[in-house]
Amino acid sequence: MAFANIRGVFIRGSRKALRNAKIAEIKTSANFCVPLKYGMASESKPLVSVGENVKKGSVIASPIDNSSAFIYSPVCGNVVAVDKRINSNGQESIVIEIEPSTSKASLYFKPIEEQTKSNLFGRLVECGSVDTWGKRLPSYKKYLSANIRKAQTLIVKLYDSDGFVYSNCFIAKNYAKEVALGALLYLKISNCDEVVFTVFDEQDKIVSQLKNELLNIGADLTKIRFYRISRKYPLDEEHLLAKIITRKTVRIEHNVEDFGVFVESAQTCLNFYNAVYKNEPTISSFYTISGNTFKNAGVVDVLNGTKALDIFSEFKIKNKEKFSSFALGGAMAGIAQVSFEAELPISQTSLVSFEDKIYSELPCINCGKCTKVCPTRLEPMALDTYAEEKDFGRAKKCGAEACINCGLCSYVCPAKRNLAQRISDMKDNIIMGRTM
Ligand code: SF4
Ligand code: SF4
């Protein structure tokens, strides 16, 4: 398989099939490889060692600070390795490898007797939910660190920004009650005045289902709004979303939570619901399986650390000759993978496979297309040069931190330069340097 580590993959082919995507079951044959680091989060500390037996839902790693999460075993099995590897996000991370057993034993939380703000927050911390978009930090982090002037608006995204991803919409359609109850839990711990559900795909159906559920639950509808998004890409980044919903401009170097705006997704609402009402930790995430080389599109509840090869055994490739590569995280902002051994973490929501050729990078021809499309008015071409020279100071002065990882610059570049990937890595380095 061709090597690639790119964002902004161009995929021909219809996305309509996703609307009818069915939930699929996958049989897992390989060991589970659970990474202890997600995106910008700190690495969690392993609590198990080689040879130990673990139950499904038992804690296998704990946070070392507010930027890391509790991590739970996705299956019953035997720990066969705890070592440093390069994870599917391209970062070095400790990975706990578990060989599944046939046991069905599970270990879940004790029920919450009464839902108070503090024990709900405690449950959110312990459940190990990770933001499935944006910075990919533990879900509780924003409520903990927010220097809340006046908690105002909770936004719940019921769509995915990438045209090849359908996971949040699928959850909103099939788990409306759970999403409604999960959103009300977030409303309770955030003290926001209102919750705004943002919809893009299948708007009428989703709005009416959710309204019915909210009525059945007896929710206070004066605190609930629906906002129909008319153009979704790249209007998914939380600063842009906060601006169109609340008209508030939050500068990119600030967190929107510090200005009273919290952003969640259908997936994180479902995770919170499961932790409070079913006492289950977060051990899986809904993935959209799509792209122009699979015979069918589908949606799968993927256990943390499932290997990509198990997805490929269920979703067959149409034409092996044409198959080129696959990416985790969507076509625009996803990261293309080098191996079928790549593990699927709970911080992602899609696997997209494509047949288009991965071209080698060519030198920049100064066409200016990348600058023209950048939604945050950066100069990707210049930032790319600073990234290659590791001149982070200059990149910072030129606003590299404002990059929202949308992938548009890579998408339009005729020289096929991996601009977005390099700028995104550089941005992480700048932010880490600032926060350390
Ligand atoms: S540099 Fe601009 S176009 Fe490129 S990924 Fe960042 S925000 Fe998007
Ligand atoms: S789009 Fe590509 S080739 Fe054109 S200026 Fe930007 S980096 Fe250079």
Structure write-up:
There is one protein chain. The chain has 13 helices and 19 strands. The protein starts with 21 loop residues before the first strand and ends with a helix. Strand 13 and strand 14 form a beta hairpin. It has a six-stranded mixed beta sheet, covered by helices on one side. The radius of gyration is 21 Å and the shape is globular. Helices cover 28% and strands 20% of the residues. With 436 residues, the protein is α/β, with parallel strands linked by helices. Bound molecules: iron/sulfur cluster (SF4) (2 copies). One iron/sulfur cluster binds at residues 364-370, 380-381, 412-415, 417, 419.
What's a quick, concise take on this entry?
By secondary structure, this protein is α/β, with parallel strands linked by helices. It is built from 13 helices and 19 strands. Among the domains are: 32-100, Beta Barrel (OB fold (Dihydrolipoamide Acetyltransferase, E2P)); 117-277, NADH-ubiquinone oxidoreductase 51kDa subunit (Rossmann fold, 3-Layer(aba) Sandwich); 369-435, no CATH class.
CATH architecture of the domain at 117-277: 3-Layer(aba) Sandwich
Q: Classify the beta-strand content into a percent band.
A: 15-25%
What binds here, in terms of ligands, is:
iron/sulfur cluster
Report on the biggest sheet.
Answer: 6 strands, mixed
Given the helix and strand composition, which structural class is it?
alpha/beta
By CATH reckoning, the class of the domain at 117-277 would read: Alpha Beta
